[in-house]
């Protein structure tokens, strides 16, 4: 992948990774985790506090890793799984409420499948090996 494709993938990866991390993960990380854990409990998850922390870290740390392109495929897969749960959570809501989870899910699934591209830390690590 060279040229415009690499620029396009990098742009998508950085924008979606940073917006997931800073717009969704960071507020959960610095906010009231018990409130988020209560919402996770309503979904029927066992150990809701544990899974709330998993979701928060998937959004924050996973988003940052996707943005810089390090451990990109597993980070995108974890963030994508979290977005699948968020989509399930919003399944009965109007489309406007579920749209963001759907967009993040689609982008993270795509990045998990194709990888970070040539302008990433993953590519730099591979070139050194």
UniProtKB/TrEMBL annotation:
GO terms for cellular component: plasma membrane. Its main location: membrane. Keywords: Cell membrane, Membrane, Transmembrane, Transmembrane helix. It is a multi-pass membrane protein. It comes from Myxococcus virescens. It comes from the Bacteria. InterPro entries: DoxX, DoxX-like_oxidoreductase. The chain crosses the membrane at residues 6-24, 36-58, 64-88, 100-121. It holds the Pfam family DoxX. Coiled coil: none annotated. It is found in: Cell membrane. The keyword Amino-acid biosynthesis does not apply. This is Oxidoreductase. Belongs to the DoxX family.
